[in-house]
Amino acid sequence: MSGPELELVNPGFVDLMVGRQPEGGIDGFLGLIVVEAAAGRLVVEFEVRDDLITFIGNMHGGCLAALCDHCLGVVLYPVMPPRSWAATTEFKVNYLRPVSGGTCRATAEVVSMTKRLAVVSIRVENEGRLVAVAQGTCTVKLAEDKEPDA
User: Fold this and answer.
1) Global pTM value
2) How many whole angstroms separate alpha carbon 42 and alpha carbon 110?
């Protein structure tokens, strides 16, 4: 997929996120690790643990939804100035195959981005199999250029 030409404007965020072991939040609970971050592209992985498997032997789809929701916003931070933020306003997940173990890998790419909105697509693979695709919209709030009051 070819997205818009985006510039890396927050390299400090990339340095902070890649390889980081989160301690709290949904990323900490699931053990999400950013393995690649660039302008308009993000790759996140996590190991499917036994405690994420339901009584029927598959991981609950909510774990994949949480992975997608996390990636929707995080993919935008490298292309926004520091002190900006993005929040998911809506997203849809198509579950294609069950997941029962191994590693899930999400690849998020920015499809379109304006000063106020971004559309992001995500592909989730499990052991090389495509298991879900998602697309969502985020509200974007760019940091103001003025200096904070002293």
Assistant:
1) 0.90
2) 9
